[in-house]
Design a protein that fits this description.
The protein is mainly alpha-helical. It has one domain. It is 71% helix and 0% strand. It contains four helices and no strands. The protein is elongated, with a radius of gyration of 23 Å. The termini are far apart.
Amino acid sequence: MLDFPPSEKSLHQIFIALLITEIAFFVLTVPLSFFGGMMAEAAIEEAVGPTEMTGPEVAVTVLASMIALVGIPSLIASWVGLFLYKSWARWLYAATGLVLGIIYVPISFMDFTLTWGLPSALNDLASVVSGAILATIFLTPLAHRFAPETKSTLVDNSIPRQNGG
């Protein structure tokens, strides 16, 4: 049973579980989203015949490509850094989430597609997990593990000094 407030050891275990959960949601959601999109396109083509891409669909495709080319590697790098408690990782994680959210807003205005509810539900759950990760890495006692390492002395002791000069 977890005690409240949780100890640093318990927070570490919760944090690792949250990271693994978010990665699992990502691994499940991305293929399911593509599969659901392909199913929707096939159903539309079967019902009305082949269609050409409109301007908004081209814009959505370009923005989705930006997410795939920039956002996914940034997210993966931040996950690796978070597992290793690197100070840059929490800022990369927060910035990646913010930028992806900003990119997602125009996509949501232009995208009127038939979607499958399962990937959407998994994305909603992943958003809650992401919020819990952000809270953990910035607001809990575990945040001190992400503090940048500082040098304790300004003098390099590896070079021998000469006396009298």
